Amino acid sequence: MLADANPLVLSAMSEIFDKDPRFSLVATSATAEGFLGTVMRVPVQVGIIDWNLPALGGAKLIEVLRDQANAPRLVVYADESSDVPRKAMSAGAAGFAPRSSAVDGLLDTCIAVAEGKMVFPFLDVRGLQTDPIEQLSRRERAMLEALSKGLTNKELSKELGISTNTVKFHLSNLYEKLSVKNRAQAIAFYYANRAAKGDFSLEE
Predict the structure, then answer these.
(1) pLDDT in the model for residue 75
(2) 55-59, 142-146, 167-171, 189-193: which has the minimum mean pLDDT?
(3) What distances in angstroms separate CA 42 from CA 2, 37, 53, one per listed residue?
(4) Lowest-pLDDT range of 14-18, 66-70, 102-106, 131-135
(5) How far apart are CA 93 and CA 187, in angstroms?
(6) C-alpha radius of gyration, the chain, whole number
(7) pLDDT of 203 higher than 50
């Protein structure tokens, strides 16, 4: 589903996604409220939203959907000004695509997000005062890596050989050390951190 206040952008994006056989366009909206109302009723896998979407705004929309079951994974399609990529990641978005890039970049980002990846190719975490991941214990690092694979608490328990209560305890400490609020943000931080170090390309 697409959401953008600019009717020309919305029309152009609709045409692009309609023509691509990899996608099935469910709906479009010019407002955050319209987007929210639709995805709460109709199954949507990936949503592409403008950061300045009226009237809630992109950040609030992401926050509202963040804890909803079966909510779409959200890609923010916006200008790179005002540190939007970092704000989008912090809010809980699954990806960011700049309006200045070729449309293929947006399509590739949506495919990657649909596959469960976090895509923030323009996010630079090197400006952080220290690398929080380096401050994690060996157990917490192992949990973060396992978390990045999309494992549930029960699966984390089995993977790491600890109880689900211990998993919750470690996750709480992990979120605090990374200054994030939930697993989606922790995963986004993990991938952005690896990309900044050149461990791999998020666009591959």
Answers:
(1) 93
(2) 189-193
(3) 13, 9, 20
(4) 131-135
(5) 11
(6) 17
(7) no
What's the longest Cα–Cα distance across the chain?
Answer: 53
Instruction: Write the pLDDT tens digit of every residue in 49-59.
Output: 999 888 888 88
Q: Which amino acid is at 142?
A: A
- SS3 readout for the chain: CEECCCHHHHHHHHHHHHHCCCCCCCCEECCHHHHHHHHCCCCCCEEEECCCCCCCCHHHHHHHHHCCCCCCEEEEEECCHHHHHHHHHHHCCCEEEECCCCHHHHHHHHHHHHCCCCECCCCCCCCCCCCHHHHCCHHHHHHHHHHCCCCCHHHHHHHHCCCHHHHHHHHHHHHHHHCCCCHHHHHHHHHHHHHHCCCCCCCC
Phi, psi of 55 (to 5 degrees): -100, -15
Backbone angles phi, psi at 195, to 5 degrees: -65, -40
Q: Are 41 and 26 in contact (CB under 8 A)?
A: no
